[in-house]
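Sharing a chain and its predicted structure for anyone who wants a worked example. Both blocks are below, sequence first, tokens second.
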Amino acid sequence: MCIRDRTPGGTFLPEPGRFYSQDFSLRIFHFNDLHGHLMDFKRDGERAILSRLAWKIQSARQAYLGKSDEAVLVFAAGDDCSGSIFDEIMMDTSQDYPNHPGYLLYSKMGVDVAGLGNHDLDRGLSFLADVIRHNARFPVLAANLSSCSQISDFCYPAALLELNGLRVGIIGLVTRAETHLNPDISQIVHPIPVAQNLVSAVRPLCDVMIIISHLGHKLTSPVPMADAGDVELAQSLPPHSVDLIIGGHSHTALNADGLCEKNIINGIPIVQSGAHGTKLGKVELKILKKTVSVLDALLFHGSGVAVDLDCEEDEVVPVRRRGR
């Protein structure tokens, strides 16, 4: 269920209240700032990237298959295009609509929700609406977009997922740093008041509350930043009001060897997995009698993960050939 608004023409929202009273284990995989690097091209040959992430994710899903009190979710935290040769596929004019190779393959590998990144806006809102409509089989979120009528039917502020009765609420935020929107017709507004309002609205509807943030780690990060990073965002929210912030934009690798205390701000753990698919993040959550605990967070190095050969040959290679 995607949340747009509470007006009569908007999306129906369930009654408030925490709904899940049993114990539940939730494993979240996350990556960010892939920038179209579905495959790496070296002088000594091609190297798999996306199909390594797919192997790890599918292995976990197989382990949880058929279990009513365990589940896996997969989140992409923005900037899923702009930066690789696969961008040429999006400019292919031989079809009636553009193909987004990232969204196309994310759909096939089972991404559950994606946040919007600043570079996902590079080709304009109408283009973005087309690629979401034709390629994304998952909700794309950005709550602090304003007056963006071209994508209002395809990009949502928040979503609610239900997993065997457990409700997971997700809010998306995007930075205005390095964006090229026409301010006369659309804009990105300050994320903190938006997050504060939405958290207060969505938190009563779900058991687990997550923010997918493409704001960057913190304002002192060595990349162009604007308004707030994840650290400032967490500081602005009520303590423990959000169970997890999954970050992007600053290409920061957090919690490489386990959840670090300095990455828990105001009782809210912050995670981010670097960039270009070199690492895959994993977060373990436990829901016990309506309380949510993040047990651990860590990063897998892509080079140390096996390749999903079926994904590589059946999905990635055909997309690569299309770009030749």
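Comments welcome. The radius of gyration is 19 Å.
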